[in-house]
Design a protein that fits this description.
Layout: H1 2-16, E1 34-35, E2 51-56, E3 59-61, E4 64-65, E5 76-81, H2 93-99, E6 103-104, E7 110-111, E8 113-115, E9 124-130, E10 136-143, E11 149-151, E12 154-160, E13 163-166, E14 193-200, E15 210-217, E16 222-228, E17 234-239, E18 242-245, E19 255-259, E20 262-268, E21 274-278, E22 286-292, E23 298-305, H3 307-318, E24 331-336, H4 396-402, H5 412-417, E25 421-433, E26 436-449, E27 456-461, E28 475-484, E29 491-494, E30 501-503, H6 509-517, H7 519-538
Biased composition (Basic and acidic residues): 334-352
Main location: secreted
Signal peptide: 1-17
């Protein structure tokens, strides 16, 4: 009867796949136990991308289970499985796990949980969901599924039972072997060519708001890194005619995704710095573009190619650059792209193309405006993310002495017609940068936009006097113009001292709709009047 009971408990423990074992009898004395044969391997925890399987064994003494301390070694053995890359377009594994907790609120809106990066414990499932335009809720759902990468920034470590375990390039757990930059396991980076390039282009104002091709990566390319530092430009990635990142003017959040048979990581900081990178290798052509919203964009890139492709790339690069190294192993090629790049096909500015805009109006050519001296106080540092936030907010006394009273512009229709954008937006954050104030806003609705706008934008005010007075978490009607910073040559969305900012009131919705619907006729008259004034000023 005891043997039957032992057998049933053993079968039950195996079926559950648990590591806690049922102790039938504890042997007292110095005699050691012995291990049972290994059980079958469990099902893989993932279907692709590198899962984990395990098998167990039991410490026995005689015909019964005994305490694990009586046997030397581990009772569970882990191994990697299904290590092939997931198909293109597959969701990040952490995102899949977070989505298991998606809910539908009382209004029928699905609230999606998405991964949160930067947590201290890389094997915890930390997710967040958007509650409204401002608030987010973060939650820890325990440890991740076995086989989840420890971090989006590494593919050489997986989580097992809540602990990060290193994985060698030989797909063995706890191995220290690593791929070199050429993709050779345990190699020394001497079997491929290294290429570094800088993309620059000089554009006129009418050439902005296009996708421009930066670089095309050929199949076999490894260790791809692309960086861009502007606050207003965005990188985009496409394979063939399909965009995997920031296509059709739809800007993505930082994420990990699969394209061209490789895993790519997209990172973007609050200061605008962007980075795309992948260990590769890619199995088809990948194109990197830049959405240019400010003049003179600069994009840096680096990649590695095997010998055959390296020679071809070096030969091709020599046709347009005189600073190319002819050596191969090791080979570093510096390429500076020509400034005669043609824009890619620009997506139509439509409601479908601009998913965040509720209303769109026809573009009206605005009179050319010169940037005034008060706009020229922008920090002259070339790299935006190096700008120091050293300015202190003024006290009430300092504000009265230096700023005086905030003047309130008049004339809604005139302001409407002379503005490059009129939007309804909610203020999310406020920062003082040198002698300017920067507002992080969420655009809820546009009444006119002669410039391309995204759902999240930075609006600038050329003072630190809190004029106009914008409070965080409040909605406003905001008018402004696109101006060029003379130091960085970036296009800034500026709320000048002559621009109107009004607190949003739902009962005024019909008023703004009426101004928008009649703007074509009224604005043409106002613009002609402004042009006559400008001509009269130039006439002595």
């Amino acid at each position: 009867m005891e043997l039957i009971t032992c057998f049933l408990l053993l079968v039950s423990s195996i079926a559950r796949g648990q590591s806690n074992f049922v102790e039938i009898s504890r042997q007292v004395g110095s005699r050691k136990g012995y291990w049972s044969p290994w059980n079958y391997w469990t099902a893989c925890s993932r279907t692709c991308g590198g899962g984990v399987t395990f098998r167990t064994r039991y410490c026995l003494h005689g015909n019964s289970l005994t305490d694990l301390s009586h046997c030397q070694g581990d009772s569970r053995e882990y191994s990697l499985c299904n290590t092939e890359i997931c198909p293109d377009g597959s969701l990040d594994f952490r995102r899949v796990q977070c989505s298991m907790y998606d809910t539908v609120d009382q209004y029928g809106i699905v609230r999606h949980w998405i991964p949160v990066g930067g947590t201290d414990d890389s094997c915890l499932l930390s997710c967040e969901k958007q509650l409204n335009n401002i608030q987010r809720l973060s939650r820890n759902f325990g440890i991740v599924v076995d086989g989840t990468p420890c971090s989006a920034n590494t593919q050489r470590g997986v989580c097992i039972q809540g602990q990060c375990r290193t994985v060698g390039c030989n797909n063995q757990l706890d191995s220290i072997l690593q791929l070199d930059s050429c993709g050779v396991c345990g190699g020394s980076n001497n079997s491929c060519g290294t290429f570094k390039g800088t993309f620059t282009i000089t554009l006129a104002g009418e050439e902005l708001y296009h996708y421009y091709e930066v670089v095309t990566f050929q199949p076999g390319t490894r260790n791809i890194t692309v960086e861009e530092e502007s606050e207003v430009n965005y990188l985009a990635l496409s394979v063939g005619n399909a965009y995997y990142l920031n296509g059709d003017w739809d800007i993505h959040r930082p994420s990990t995704f699969t394209a061209a048979g490789a895993v790519f990581t997209y990172d973007r900081r609050r200061d605008g710095y962007e980075r795309i990178w992948s260990l590769g290798p890619i199995n088809t052509v990948v194109q990197i573009s830049v959405i240019v919203r400010a003049k003179d964009p600069i994009v840096l890139y680096e990649f590695y190619l095997p010998p055959v492709l390296s020679k071809g790339t070096a030969d091709k690069s020599n046709q347009s650059s005189s600073s190319i190294s002819n050596s191969f192993v090791p080979n570093t090629v510096d390429v500076r792209e020509s400034s005669e790049s043609e824009p890619l096909n620009k997506p139509d500015i439509s409601k479908n193309g601009l998913k965040h805009l509720e209303q769109l109006t026809k573009n009206v050519t605005a009179p050319q405006r010169k940037i005034s001296e008060q706009y020229e106080t922008f920090n002259k540092t070339r790299n935006p993310h190096h700008r120091e936030n050293t300015a202190k907010r003024l006290s009430k006394t300092e504000r009265r002495e230096l700023c005086g009273n905030c003047e309130k512009p008049k004339g809604k229709v005139r302001n409407f017609c002379l503005s490059d954008f009129v939007v309804r937006a909610i203020v999310l954050d406020r920062s003082i940068i040198r002698d300017m104030t920067r507002y992080d806003v969420q655009i809820l609705q546009t009444f006119t936009n002669k410039v391309m706008l995204f759902s999240r934008e930075y609006f600038w005010v050329p003072n630190i006097c809190n004029c106009p007075r914008l409070k965080i978490e409040r909605e406003y009607i905001i008018m402004g113009n696109r101006v060029e910073s003379p130091s960085t040559r970036e296009n800034l969305l500026m709320i000048g001292p002559d621009k109107m900012v009004l607190r949003w009131k739902q009962e005024k919705f019909d008023l703004w709709n009426n101004i928008q619907s009649t703007s074509s006729t009224k604005c043409s008259k106002i613009l002609r009047k402004e042009q006559r004034k400008a001509r009269n000023k130039r006439t002595p």
